[in-house]
User: What shape does this take?
Amino acid sequence: MMEPGTYFMEGNTACAEGAIAAGCTFFAGYPITPASEILERIAERFPEIHGSTLQMEDELGSIASVLGAAWAGRKAMTATSGPGFSLMMENYGLGLMTETPCVIVDVMRGGPSTGLPTMVAQGDVNQTRWGTHGDVGVVVYAPSSPQELFDYTIQAFNTAEKYRLPVVVLSDEMVSHMTEKVEVPLEDEIELVDRKKPEEPPEDHLPFRPDDDLVPPMANAGEGYSIHVTGLTHDERGHPSVDEETQNMLVPRLIDKIRKNVDDILEYEEYKTEDAEKVIVAYGSVYRTAVEAVDMAREKGYKVGLLRPKTIWPFPEERIYDLAREGIDDFIVAEINFGQVVYEVERTTGGAAQTHLVPRMGGNIHTPEEIVERIEAIDRGEVPPFKEGER
Amino acid sequence: MSIRRSRDWFSPDYQEQREEDGIGHGLHPLDNYLRKDRIPHIWCPGCGLGVILNSYLRALKNSEISPEETAMISGIGCTGRAAGYVDVDSFHVTHGRAIPFATGLKVGNRDLVTTVFSGDGDLFAIGGNHFIHAARRNVDFNVICVNNFNYGMTGGQAGPTTPKGAETSTTPWGGFEHPFNLPAVSAGAGAVYVARWTSYHTDKMIESLEEALDKEGFCFIEVLSPCPTGYGRKVGLGTGKETMKHFKENSKLQPEAAPSEVALDPKDPESDIIIGNFVNREAPTYQDTRGKVFEEARDKLGVE
Amino acid sequence: MRRELRFSGFGGQGVILMGHIFGKAAVLDGKDVTLTKSYGPEARGGACSTDIIISDQRVYYPQVRNPDVLVSMSQSALDTYENSLDEDSVLMIDTGLVESDRKGTVGLPATEIAEEELGVKMVANIVMLGYFTTETEMVSPESIKESIREQVPEGTEDKNIEAFCRGYEEGDESK
Assistant: This one.
């Protein structure tokens, strides 16, 4: 990894350096704006760390080779943006189904389709949760600065290794192309997690039998365990078993290994929520605007706080449920899309508070004034809640 | 049964244990390479896949490559199921993605003797782009393509190798697309070893597979297979046995043939099937070239 | 105190590098600093810019709206960004390349100095940065010099330091 110290570093560079610090030695990617700098940095740096980097023919190939490398025992990563992330949905599912630890970075740009290649948006949030077919449990981090891109890329590898799944780092164009101070800590100050290995000999090993934490230990290829890995519904031996019973054993566990470990995985932060009557919910680059909006609104006399999910999935639903019952009147969700996380907030409050959306279509982030104006309008009773169709 | 399987591959105890467990009769010479608890396989009577998988495993055995250092990757389809039957590290991945998965696995651990075993539709329709790029990179693994001229598992639809004019479930009025000539595609994309056999030519196929297992670089072996259920009966090639007879009578061993000259028309009973290993050349592998460039980079940077 | 800055010019003048040198210097001085830039094919050739926010506290909202200082190294850049200025903004220009009748405009002929006095046109951006450093006193010249040595191409460090000092002298320290 790079020398510890204080750097002035672009977000995408910090992401690549975070991966290297996490022990990533395999990267496969395909150039795409605004994520290409990650592949470029990796290509520059991998000779030094004896890493393997592949520029693949497309994103289908990128994610497939990342899964292959993960089963060869590597810590592996790919990075892309919306159009490439759409292509990756197929093997995101294979990775979740086969419990393959790896990291996918998605730097969000304006969509749908080719959209706004060079400009910020947050339209992929629900794609990370629901984009691949079937029922899955996922972990998605939403960093808001180059420092967090460094830190959360490391964290993403740790979570991927610990819970055996592809973990998404959901950046956006603003965060990835921003240059800020990044502190690179001493190597021994960085906590790294490696996948659990089987303790029993190969003949007694069942590759998909989970421990109490619902995560099975993982034998890599070439270690003599003769593993079989399939995207078909499989039993604890890893053998295809295409029946209802096996499906009911396997799929709930894949979801529960996230759900039941939520206290360990979930991360969020709050700002001035102690006495708040209204709470802004914002993540990624918009979180930065929201902090200023809180201060600005408070200067005008409004009791406003902020809840910022750091993991978008799992979502801090219990905290929102509690806040709604502790007397928060309004949740104001500011996101660069036409409403994604807002549905989650609305669902979670269960009608105990009103939910509002401050949408943006992509191209730029919200201004603090824009959010404050909406708060004022809500306070005056001029804005109906989200579920009545407000945009 | 507490023990999943013995790992002492060649010991008599292993065979005994298997018999005690009631898994198989312990008589087949390739038992050590098969997950016998997964047998019987799903393939139809008359299908060539059993013969071809058998040939691959025999080549492994003859080459004295241990199952522990072997990895096999399959995509989706009838051939895709092969990975589920072999007792080596085996991966049954998504449709078309066996090659990039194998690329990651091999680059991730170059000690693994890696083979992609998949079908014509998986490798050349949905996975065609990955195929040509892996050949171009010359990643060091083998690709065995079982070509049965159709999508057998899903009901005999036309695919990228279906001959023009063939009536399939998606070309009920006769096919009108030009099929791939797979040796030409592979050779053109950069494969260092290119061969074609049929499921009838087991000895030559085994010999050729041994050669490929020994060779560094991207090796491609096409093996023609009967598909009596999905293809043979519809286009007039008949049962598996009749298709095998067709392979026997119409095949011509011409290793000197240029890959561009070996296009097939297995629907036409009179046409020749040119077989042989058409390409066997030396070229540095992906790992070697990248290793060299990275070594030079480290020299420039002054790092170990 | 939050300050918003915009360095602008045409592609090839090194305005992005200016931003990075300034930003790293600010980090060395213990400030919080956020740099963003116009990005993509549309940023090449015509007007290009880099935006910086510098503050003693954490910078949250990362966008520059009305820069406290706009540095323009080309006329087209000024034409593009002039409307972002407000009453209190300072405009700083390369007086050899850019014309402006805006009140309180400051500047120096950076490109001319670089070409004629220093013999390398390419260091005009660093001459301008030297001038900017004296005029604004936002970061220390020592940190800028350290940042220059770190970021300019190997072998050009001394020439760039010379360019910085030359620009620095031109600034008005009495302000």
